[in-house]
Design a protein that fits this description.
Helix content: 40-55%
Number of strands: 10
CATH topology of the largest domain: Nucleotidyltransferase, domain 5
Strand order of the largest sheet: 3-2-1-4-5
Distance between the termini: 30 Å
CATH class of the largest domain: Alpha Beta
Oligomer: single chain
Bound molecules: 5'-O-[(R)-(carboxyoxy)(hydroxy)phosphoryl]adenosine, zinc ion
Structural class: alpha/beta
C-alpha cells in the first residue's frame, strides 16, 4: 500500500509543508516570515503568531501541488524540536488536530536529524557511514551518520552557531537579517585580505564568539581613523569573514575524517547553501579523495521536505507518536 505523509516544519521562522509518497517528495512549500527583518533577528512571539497565520494556507498549497487529498494521507509528521517553543507548538498542535480528525498516526521528527536526512531526498545520496557537518542558525555539529536514524554527534559549537556568526557579523556591517546569504553574495566580489584569528577549540568542537568579537574590535579600530571603512571595503570584509568561518569548519571536518577514516563527507543546514563553503569542500575533497555531498539549495535552509523524508524512514519502522506529545525546545538525539 502507498504511504503518503504530510510533513510540517515550524521550528523557527519558516512555515513549511511537504507531501511525500513512498519516499518521493511531491511538494515542498515554504512561507518565509519577512516580518523579522525590521528587528534584525527572529522575535519568538512574532514568529509563533506568523506560523498561526501561515500554517493552513501553506499546508493547503503543499497538498494541492502534490495533488493529494487529506483523506488519502497515511500519517502526519511534524518537527518536535529543537527550536523556538512557541513556533514548535503551532506545528505540533496542528498535527495533533489533523491526526485526530483523519484518524491517522503522527510521526515526530528531530529537526537536526532531518537536516542530515535531506541528503536522501535526491541523488547523489551518501553511503553509510558518513560524516555530516550540520551548520545552521542554531547549531553547528559534526555528525557520524551510521544509518538513517542512527546518528552520533562527534563535535559541536561551544557558543555561537556558524549561521549566527554570519548573521551577527552582518549586523555589525549594517546588513539585514539573515545576513548569511548577503555575505555570501558580497564575498564573491571581494578578496579575503583581512586576517582574523582562527579560534582554538579542542578536538572536533567549534567556537565562533571570539571571531565575532575580533571582527567588532577590528571594525571599531578602522572606523576611528577611516569613517567610511566599512562602506568602502564591504566586499573584502565579507570575503574575509566568510573565509575565516569556512576554513575553520573545513579544518574540523578534515580532523573528523582523519579520526574516523571516513571519506564520505556531507554538509547540511542553512549555511551549507554558502557558495564559499561548497567550493572549499570541493577543493578539500579533491585533495583528500573524499566523496562530497550537499543538498539542493531548497533543502539546505529550513524546509518540510527534510521532515518528510525523515518521517518516511520512521513510517517504515512504524515509529509513531502519541497524542500526549509536547514540543521540546532542546530535544536531544
Ligand atoms: O537551517 P536554517 O534555515 O535554520 C536553522 O535551523 O537555524 O539556517 C539558517 C541560517 C541563517 O543563519 C542564515 O544566515 C544561514 O543559515 N544561511 C547562510 C546562507 N544561506 C543561509 N549562511 C551563509 N551563506 C548562505 N548562502
Ligand atoms: Zn534548521
Amino acid at each position: 500500500m502507498d504511504s503518503i505523509i504530510l510533513a510540517i516544519e515550524s521550528s523557527c521562522d519558516d512555515t513549511s509543508a511537504a507531501v511525500i509518497k513512498n519516499g518521493q517528495v511531491l511538494s515542498n512549500v515554504t512561507s518565509n516570515q519577512e516580518v523579522h527583518r525590521a528587528y534584525g533577528g527572529v522575535v519568538p512571539e512574532v514568529a509563533s503568531r506568523a506560523h498561526q497565520v501561515d500554517i493552513v494556507p501553506t499546508v493547503n498549497a503543499a497538498l494541492e501541488k502534490a495533488n493529494v487529498k487529506k483523506k488519502e494521507l497515511s500519517a502526519i509528521a511534524f518537527t518536535r524540536g529543537p527550536g523556538l517553543i512557541g513556533s514548535l507548538l503551532v506545528g505540533v498542535s496542528f498535527a495533533k488536530g489533523l491526526a485526530l480528525a483523519l484518524d491517522i498516526p503522527m510521526i515526530e521528527v528531530h529537526h537536526m536529524q532531518a537536516h542530515v536526512l535531506a541528503h536522501f531526498i535526491e541523488a547523489p545520496k551518501p553511503k553509510f557511514p558518513f560524516l555530516c557537518l550540520t551548520v545552521s542558525g542554531g547549531h553547528t555539529q559534526i555528525v557520524l551518520v551510521k544509518d538513517y536514524l542512527d546518528m552520533e554527534i562527534l563535535g559541536k559549537t561551544i557558543d555561537d552557531a556558524a549561521g549566527e556568526a554570519f548573521d551577527k557579523t552582518g549586523k555589525l556591517l549594517g546588513l539585514p537579517y539573515p545576513a548569511g546569504p548577503q555575505i555570501d553574495k558580497l564575498a564573491k566580489k571581494g578578496q579575503p585580505v583581512f586576517p582574523f584569528p582562527k579560534p582554538k577549540v579542542a578536538e572536533l568542537d567549534f567556537s565562533f564568539s571570539g571571531l565575532k568579537t575580533s571582527i567588532l574590535y577590528f571594525l571599531k579600530k578602522q572606523v576611528k581613523t577611516h569613517p567610511d571603512f566599512i562602506k568602502e571595503n564591504l566586499e573584502d570584509i565579507c570575503a574575509s569573514v566568510q573565509h575565516s568561518i569556512v576554513s575553520f569548519l573545513i579544518s574540523k571536518m578534515e580532523k573528523a575524517s582523519e579520526q574516523t577514516g571516513i571519506k564520505e563527507i556531507a554538509i547540511a543546514g542553512g549555511v551549507s547553501a554558502n557558495s564559499g563553503l561548497r567550493s572549499a569542500l570541493e577543493r578539500k575533497g579533491q585533495e583528500k579523495s573524499w566523496n562530497v555531498y550537499y543538498p539542493a539549495l531548497q533543502y539546505c535552509t529550513d524546509n518540510a521536505g527534510m521532515i518528510a523524508i525523515t518521517a518516511h524512514y520512521k513510517y517504515i519502522n512504524k515509529d509513531f507518536t502519541s497524542q500526549e506529545v509536547t514540543p521540546s525546545a532542546r530535544l536531544g538525539f
